[in-house]
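Homework help board

Subject: predicted structure for assignment chain

Our instructor gave us this sequence and asked us to write out the predicted structure in token form, then describe one feature. I got the tokens but I'm not sure how to describe them. Can anyone check?
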Amino acid sequence: HAVRSFTTAPVYRTATSSGPVTFAIVGDLGQFKNSQKTLEHMRDHCEGINAVVLAGDLAYTDYDHRRWDTFFDFLDDYSIFGEVPLMIATGNHGTY
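My token output:
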């Protein structure tokens, strides 16, 4: 339920930009024990990550639509997304 904001990366390298942009890319996240381990790893090693791309297969609802409703609440438990922007790229069955 938090409202967040971020500054986008510069398009071109300028005197004020600090170098390349580093993305963390993760897919098939869901809401499982392994999902927690993945998010904990990203949180604990977020130094130098400028943005995270979640490449589809988000919630694995198994016909329980409450999982869609709680997916972003699940992400709120990991402080990395308070500092690093998250971009969702739906794909595969993440689009249903």
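Reply (TA_rk): Your tokens look well-formed. For the description, you could write something like this. The helical segments are 33-44, 66-76, 80-83. That's the kind of observation they're looking for.
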